[in-house]
Amino acid sequence: MLLLTRAPAKINLTLHVVRRRPDGFHDLESLVIFAGVADVLALDPAAPLGLAVSGPTATDAGDTEGNLVLKAARALAGRVPGLRTGGFRLTKRLPVGAGIGGGSSDAAAALRLLARLNGLGLDDERVRSAARATGSDVPVCVHPRSRMMAGTGDRLGLPLMARPLYAVLANPGVHLPTPAVFKRMGFEPGEARHLGEHPVPHDGLGHGAFVDLVRGGRNDMEAAALSLAPAIGDAIDVLGATADHRVVRMSGSGSTCFALYDDRRAARAAAARVAGARPDWWVRSTALR
Length: 289
Fold this sequence. Notes:
Blueprint: E1 3-20, E2 26-44, E3 50-54, H1 68-77, E4 87-91, H2 102-118, H3 125-134, H4 138-142, E5 147-151, E6 155-156, E7 165-171, H5 178-185, H6 207-215, H7 222-228, H8 231-240, E8 247-250, E9 257-261, H9 264-277, E10 282-288
Parallel strand pairs: 3-4
Antiparallel strand pairs: 1-2, 2-4, 2-5, 5-6, 7-9, 7-10, 8-9
Helix pairs in contact: 1-2, 1-3, 2-3, 5-7
Catalytic activity: 4-CDP-2-C-methyl-D-erythritol + ATP = 4-CDP-2-C-methyl-D-erythritol 2-phosphate + ADP + H(+)
Pfam families: GHMP_kinases_C (PF08544), GHMP_kinases_N (PF00288)
Domain GHMP kinase C-terminal: 217-274
């Protein structure tokens, strides 16, 4: 019997780059939230370990052997002797290399399915260790709930209460590798920068206060990403021209940008306008949780 789960898009509402560590990684602080749009992952326990990829964005996903789904499965198998695995089937709907954690969310989905198959809790240290070993964004995607993440993605805050946030996601079709954006930012090994306060949310905030907190934040990677891919500026401008938006910003290292709205109707109307103006873009209206 197939096991199924969704791998939702991860949106960085805020992203503060703190420093470049001596090991070359960067310490971050980010408020993340998850979208209703997602890839879908299935696991067939009767099949040998492997991966088949299909769907609208499958051709951009690259070689299956290098896919993070298999990397996550092998990482967990190395930590759990006798782990039952199987054949994975990934339906790829999210754009690849787009700053919305598609590959990381896919890997986290694989860990959820394997944990279910083997009776492991998602808080099992072996699952958490496998997530950290697979990639920096994987741990926060294992439990896809809005929360703060820090460090190299290894430090996670408590889940925040779901808020009625609605968004339009727009990707102008530009693939932007994260290492290239970090390189353009120009951090030297061990260098830290104080670029301003980073708002930290808590569950006592109402909807309006939460949106105001997000508006007061920033994405420190946006300027560097825009210099490498000017189409990001076009996406920000087009989203910024929609009615009733509250916040417009780039997610992650780009190139997907988002606009926040107070209600679903405004988000859907904005998505229709953006898609009409840029029919070659990937555009979706979605709820965020």
